[in-house]
Amino acid sequence: MSSSAITMARIYAMEGHDQVNQILDILHDEEKIFGVTIVRGIAGFGKDRKIHTSSLLALSLELPLIIEFYDEPVKVEKAIQTLKSRLDLKHIVSWPATAHTDPAT
């Protein structure tokens, strides 16, 4: 098994803001980021403190989304700058990590 330094990045967004496809296009087609995953949250709130939930009693069309991606640190930093320059993304966090890979794959 080998390991390499990577940077993880996470974008917090809301469903229904029509940014997901734009983010995916930038990360996949332009920046060629190694891995991207989008997770839909069941509940959450942000700066406005308004709770968004998937509860049947309070059906929200704006559920929280987490868009997480990783690659070499330089590529992730460039991707973050590209995303910030084109889209109104308010919440992006990143941190160093280690990828553990099997050389046979």
From TrEMBL:
Lineage of source species: Bacteria, Pseudomonadati, Pseudomonadota, Gammaproteobacteria, Methylococcales
SUPFAM superfamilies named among the record's database cross-references: GlnB-like (SSF54913)
Record's protein name: DUF190 domain-containing protein
Pfam families in alphabetical order: DUF190 (PF02641)
Native source species: Candidatus Methylobacter favarea
Domain of life per record: Bacteria
Gene3D superfamilies: 3.30.70.120
Family from the record: Belongs to the UPF0166 family.
